[in-house]
């Protein structure tokens, strides 16, 4: 059952819907593959065992971009289920195309608002991992309120994780990294696996390096990873 206690009522969205210029290949992939791999918030609570045809650890990634890292992780961990959420359709189309070409069966995706999906579709204490890689940093100070990582959001993630499950965050904006660290270190029910006030010393081996990340590194951006474990 989806628990309805203390719902996360977000007033400000952390993303904007940009004009989606899809290639013919992305459009055809979306049309061809959505029935098999697509999920909809409108259908309500998700039964993971029924959806994947098995009982396995489930990883949920918020904002998978063009989907390369999500597909790479699903390839590397066939024993796990992966759910991706992305509102920009070119990325969804590309991800589905790779999922099809690689013959993967352990990926499903939503093209809906992640907070709404978590609140309305994902059962409490059902996820082993939640991933948030390179979210929009909203780097202007007046836009910091739009950042998805906020105290209320941390508690939404906490409710959806199993005890012992992890929330993995990564960003290439130092100011946002500091914000993530401050919010998550203060979040009830979580423990920083690198130690209070510390980032991970290096990129975890299970997180692939994306083209987006490589581009940022060429521009001199650092990358900061954080992994928090749900303790209660």
From TrEMBL:
Database matches in SUPFAM superfamilies: S-adenosyl-L-methionine-dependent methyltransferases (SSF53335)
Example of a GO cellular component annotation carried by this entry: tRNA methyltransferase complex
Pathway: tRNA modification; N(7)-methylguanine-tRNA biosynthesis
GO MF, one annotated term: tRNA (guanine(46)-N7)-methyltransferase activity
Catalytic reactions on record: guanosine(46) in tRNA + S-adenosyl-L-methionine = N(7)-methylguanosine(46) in tRNA + S-adenosyl-L-homocysteine
Binding site for substrate: 140, 172, 210-213
Its biological purpose: Catalyzes the formation of N(7)-methylguanine at position 46 (m7G46) in tRNA.
Annotated PANTHER family: 3-DEOXY-D-MANNO-OCTULOSONIC-ACID TRANSFERASE/TRNA GUANINE-N 7 - -METHYLTRANSFERASE, PENTACOTRIPEPTIDE-REPEAT REGION OF PRORP DOMAIN-CONTAINING PROTEIN
Listed name of the protein: tRNA (guanine-N(7)-)-methyltransferase
Species in which this protein is naturally found: Reinekea blandensis MED297
């Amino acid at each position: 059952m989806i628990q309805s206690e203390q719902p996360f009522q977000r007033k400000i969205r952390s993303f904007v819907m940009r004009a989606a210029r899809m290639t013919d290949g992305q459009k055809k992939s979306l049309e061809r593959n959505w029935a098999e791999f697509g999920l909809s918030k409108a259908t309500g609570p998700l039964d993971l065992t029924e959806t994947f045809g098995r009982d396995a650890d489930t990883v949920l990634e918020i904002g998978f971009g063009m989907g390369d890292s999500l597909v790479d992780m699903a390839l590397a961990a066939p024993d796990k289920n992966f759910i991706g959420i992305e509102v920009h359709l070119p990325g969804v189309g590309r991800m589905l195309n790779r999922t099809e070409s690689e013959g993967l069966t352990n990926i499903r995706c939503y093209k809906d608002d992640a907070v709404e999906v978590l609140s309305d579709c994902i059962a409490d204490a059902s996820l082993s991992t939640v991933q948030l890689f390179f979210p929009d940093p909203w780097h202007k100070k007046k836009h910091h309120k739009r950042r998805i990582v906020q105290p209320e959001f941390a508690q939404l993630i906490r409710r959806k994780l199993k005890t012992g499950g992890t929330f993995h965050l990564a960003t290439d904006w130092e100011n946002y990294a500091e914000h993530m660290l401050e919010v998550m270190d203060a979040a009830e029910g979580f423990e920083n696996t690198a130690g209070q006030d510390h980032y991970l010393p290096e990129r975890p081996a299970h997180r692939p390096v994306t083209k987006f990340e490589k581009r940022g590194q060429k521009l001199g951006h650092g990358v900061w990873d954080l992994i928090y474990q749900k303790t209660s």
